[in-house]
Design goal:
Largest sheet: none
Radius of gyration: 13 Å
CATH topology: Lysozyme-like
Number of helices: 3
CATH class: Alpha Beta
Helix content: 25-40%
Strand content: under 5%
Number of domains: 1
Length: 105
Amino acid sequence: MYEGRAWDRIGAHTLGWNNVAVSVCFMGDYSRKMPPSGALAAARALIDCGVQIGKIAPDYILCGHRDLRATEGPGETLYRHIQTWDHYDCGIPPAKPEPLPYKDE
């Protein structure tokens, strides 16, 4: 796992959603295969950590990149898989939430 930008920095991953979203990228082509199980576990652990430290809202909505922007990411096989995760709810693009208040640690 690599850190792109820190929790309190605005990313540049999904135009229009960067200030209310955390992005997790899986490097590779997951159109026909799954990422390694360790990568999936790391993504879930990162989300859980974000919730625990107050950087991700407990009632967050999980989306695939293609749910919010025209792209094939994260690949069809991975996309179908993340749709089974808790909090996935992007049948239609959700209303954009307000950013969480900044917490100085």
